[in-house]
Design brief:
By secondary structure, the chain is α+β, with helices and mostly antiparallel strands. It contains 3 helices and 5 strands, in the order H-H-E-E-E-E-E-H. It starts with a helix and ends with a helix.
Length: about 90
């Protein structure tokens, strides 16, 4: 499922127009992104949590030239799946 599919499913399930469903989905993702950018953790019970992890810089290797390069420190969002979602996906056990 991609974002367009999510918007369509929300519109169908809740009887919303596509424009209204798109606004809801965009607002939801925008608020999550803003929260993460501020360093907050986003937790949706039963689904999972997102938080920003700091990665330190390190020496890397340019695969094309073999040259050693310095990779700058960075921050990346990390998703941790919730127990309930994990159990719903793992239906074989």
């Amino acid at each position: 499922m991609n974002k367009s599919d999510l918007i369509q499913a929300l519109a169908d399930k809740e009887g919303l127009t596509l424009k209204m469903a798109e606004k809801v989905v965009n607002t939801f993702f925008d608020l999550m992104a803003q929260s993460l950018a501020q360093g907050d953790r986003v937790e949706i019970r039963g689904f999972g949590s997102l938080q920003v992890k700091d990665y330190e810089g390190y020496e890397g290797l340019n695969p094309k030239t073999g040259e050693i390069i310095m990779v700058k420190p960075k921050k990346l969002p990390v998703f941790k799946v919730g127990k309930e979602l994990k159990e719903r996906v793992d239906i074989e056990n």
